[in-house]
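can u do me a favor
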């Protein structure tokens, strides 16, 4: 359980950093992604995008 929590946390960090490029293809704007403004700065927590990409990586890993 701890391993999956760490994996999802790491994916959230990576997706948050690469969000400007991923928004061009539609990731980061899914219904489960959270966006909010605080003190004039926008924060994004891409939970749904993280789960989607994790599932895609799992399927690719199982096929290889």
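np, heres the sequence
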């Amino acid at each position: 359980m701890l391993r999956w929590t760490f994996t999802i946390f790491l994916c959230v960090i990576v997706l948050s950093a690469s969000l400007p490029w991923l928004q061009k293809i539609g990731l980061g704007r899914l219904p489960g992604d959270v966006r909010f403004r605080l003190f004039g700065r926008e924060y994004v927590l891409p939970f749904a995008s993280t789960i989607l990409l994790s599932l895609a990586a799992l399927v690719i890993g199982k096929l290889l």
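The longest strand covers residues 34-38. hope that helps!!
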